[in-house]
C-alpha cells in the first residue's frame, strides 16, 4: 500500500492520495483525490495538477513485540506544473523578457548593418557599395575625379581651390590638381604653374610669344610684354641657351642690334649710341642729346658743338660753343656768320656784328654789319667807332665820320 500526501501548510492544502505499490501506473490517472485541511476535514475535488510526496511504506516486523514499524524510503516531490518552493517576482520576468528582446534586436541590427555596410576607400568592393562621391574601380573603392579622401572625416571631399585653407598635417592630396598645401596652411599652385582666374585651375606657365595677361603667367625669365610672354626691356632672347640675357651697354660685345640697349646699334661688334644720342647711366639706354636751351648736368648730354653752361646758380643748360650759333633748321650748332652775310638774327653773327638792314644799299636784306657809327675792321673782324674831329686818320685805316 502506498500513500500520496502533501504538506498541510498550504492553503488550500495539497491533496492526499493513497494507492498500492503494485499499481504505480494509476497515480497519474487518478483525478478523485482526498485532501485534508487544517480542520482535518476531508473533501473531494478534481485536480489536473497534483503536488505529492511519494512515500514507500515497508512493514518491519519486530520479533520482541507485537508491533510492526513502517519504514519510509525514496521520498521525493512530483509536480507536473511548477515547483511549489521557487517563485520569481513579476518584474524579474519582465526584465528577462526585455533583455531577450534587446539581444534579439542587437543581433538583427548587427546582421543588417553588416549586410548594408558600404565599403571604405581602398577596400575591396563589389558593385555600388562604395561611399558617397566614390566608385568601385578594379574592385577597389576610389574617390571620384575632383575629390580626395579626408581621413579625419572618413569621406570623399571635394578638392580645395587655391587660396582655401588646408591641413598641413594631412599627407593626402587635398588641393586641386597641380596645387599643394603650403606651410602657411593655404592651397597654392605648384612650381611652373599659375592660377587661371577664368577657369580656377592651375595651368602650366606660358612659353615665349604665347598670349598672356600678367607676368605671373609666363615662364621664367619671361614677362608679359605687350600681351605676349617675352624677355623684359633690359634683356634679349638668346636662342642658344633658351634664356634672356642682358642688353649690351655702350662698348659691350654684340652680333646684332637687338642685343644692344634701346636706340643703340651694333657697330663693329660693339654696341654704340647714334651720334645724336648719349648713354644714360640711370636708364641704361641711349637717349637723344639735349638741344640748345634744355636743362643739362654734363656737356656730353648736349648736341654736338654745344656745352652745358651755367645760366644761374641753380640751373644749367646747353649752349653752342663760342663762335657757333644754333641753326633751328638743322638743329645743330654751326659757325657764326661774318661781316656782310645774310642773317635772320644777331645771334647768327660773329661778335660785334648785328643783323641789320643796310640803309645804304637799296633793297638789301638783313646782313651781319656794324652800326652806322662804326666801321668794320677786317684784320680784327670787329666793329670800331668812326673817328671824330681831331682824331688821327688815314686813308687806309680809321675813317672819319661823314660829317667832317
Structural commentary:
This protein has about 400 residues and is mainly beta. Helices cover about 5% and strands about 35% of the residues. The chain contains one helix and 30 strands. The longest helix is centred in the first third of the chain and has 27 residues, at about 90-115. The N and C termini lie far apart (about 205 Å). Mean pLDDT is about 80; it is low at about 1-55 and about 75-80. This is EGF-like domain-containing protein. It holds the Pfam family EB. Keywords: Membrane, Transmembrane, Transmembrane helix.
Helix content: under 10%
Describe the largest sheet: 6 strands, antiparallel
Global Rg? 66 Å
DSSP helical segment count: 1
Estimate the global geometry from the Cα principal axes. Answer: rod-shaped
What is the total tally of β strands? 30
Taking the alpha carbons of the first and last residues, their distance comes to 207 Å
Low-confidence region ranges: 1-55, 73-81
Pfam families: EB (PF01683)
Protein name: EGF-like domain-containing protein
Keywords: Membrane, Transmembrane, Transmembrane helix
Transmembrane segments: 90-116
Any descriptors?
six-stranded antiparallel beta sheet; single chain; 1 helix; about 400 residues; EGF-like domain-containing protein; about 35% strand; mainly beta; 30 strands; two-stranded antiparallel ribbon
How would you briefly describe this protein structure?
It comes from Rotaria socialis. With 404 residues, the chain is mainly β. The chain has one helix spanning 90-116, and strands at 2-5, 15-19, 32-36, 42-46, 52-61, 68-78, 134-137, 140-143, 147-150, 155-158, 179-181, 187-189, 193-195, 202-204, 223-225, 228-230, 235-238, 243-246, 265-267, 270-272, 277-280, 285-288, 306-312, 315-320, 324-327, 332-335, 354-357, 366-369, 374-377, 382-385.
Amino acid at each position: 500500500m502506498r500513500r500520496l500526501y502533501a504538506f498541510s501548510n498550504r492553503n488550500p492544502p495539497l491533496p492526499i492520495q493513497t494507492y498500492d505499490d503494485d499499481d504505480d501506473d494509476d497515480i497519474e490517472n487518478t483525478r478523485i483525490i482526498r485532501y485534508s485541511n487544517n480542520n482535518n476535514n476531508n473533501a473531494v475535488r478534481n485536480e489536473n495538477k497534483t503536488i505529492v510526496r511519494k512515500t514507500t511504506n515497508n512493514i518491519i516486523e519486530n520479533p520482541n513485540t507485537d508491533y510492526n514499524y513502517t519504514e519510509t524510503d525514496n521520498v521525493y516531490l512530483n509536480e507536473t506544473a511548477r515547483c511549489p518552493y521557487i517563485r520569481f517576482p513579476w518584474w524579474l520576468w519582465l526584465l528577462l523578457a526585455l533583455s531577450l528582446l534587446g539581444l534579439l534586436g542587437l543581433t538583427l541590427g548587427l546582421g543588417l548593418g553588416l549586410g548594408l555596410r558600404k565599403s571604405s576607400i581602398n577596400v575591396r568592393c563589389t558593385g555600388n557599395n562604395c561611399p558617397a562621391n566614390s566608385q568601385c574601380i578594379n574592385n577597389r573603392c576610389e574617390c571620384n575625379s575632383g575629390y580626395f579622401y579626408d581621413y579625419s572625416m572618413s569621406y570623399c571631399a571635394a578638392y580645395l581651390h587655391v587660396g582655401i585653407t588646408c591641413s598641413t598635417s594631412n599627407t593626402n592630396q587635398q588641393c586641386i590638381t597641380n596645387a599643394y598645401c603650403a606651410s602657411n596652411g593655404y592651397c597654392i599652385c605648384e612650381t611652373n604653374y599659375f592660377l587661371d582666374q577664368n577657369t580656377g585651375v592651375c595651368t602650366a606657365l606660358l612659353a615665349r610669344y604665347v598670349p598672356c595677361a600678367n607676368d605671373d603667367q609666363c615662364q621664367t625669365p619671361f614677362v608679359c610684354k605687350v600681351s605676349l610672354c617675352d624677355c623684359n626691356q633690359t634683356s634679349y632672347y638668346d636662342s642658344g641657351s633658351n634664356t634672356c640675357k642682358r642688353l649690351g651697354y655702350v662698348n659691350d660685345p654684340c652680333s646684332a642690334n637687338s642685343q644692344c640697349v634701346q636706340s643703340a646699334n651694333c657697330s663693329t661688334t660693339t654696341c654704340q649710341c647714334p651720334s645724336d644720342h648719349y648713354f644714360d647711366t640711370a636708364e641704361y639706354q641711349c637717349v637723344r642729346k639735349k638741344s640748345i636751351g634744355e636743362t643739362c648736368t654734363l656737356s656730353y648730354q648736349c648736341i654736338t658743338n654745344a656745352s652745358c653752361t651755367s645760366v644761374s646758380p641753380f640751373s644749367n643748360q646747353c649752349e653752342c660753343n663760342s663762335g657757333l650759333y644754333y641753326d633751328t633748321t638743322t638743329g645743330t650748332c654751326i659757325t657764326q656768320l661774318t661781316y656782310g652775310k645774310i642773317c635772320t638774327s644777331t645771334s647768327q653773327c660773329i661778335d660785334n656784328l648785328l643783323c641789320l638792314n643796310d640803309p645804304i644799299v637799296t633793297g638789301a636784306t638783313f646782313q651781319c654789319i656794324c652800326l652806322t657809327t662804326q666801321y668794320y675792321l677786317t684784320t680784327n673782324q670787329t666793329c670800331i667807332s668812326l673817328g671824330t674831329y681831331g682824331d688821327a686818320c688815314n686813308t687806309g685805316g680809321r675813317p672819319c665820320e661823314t660829317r667832317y
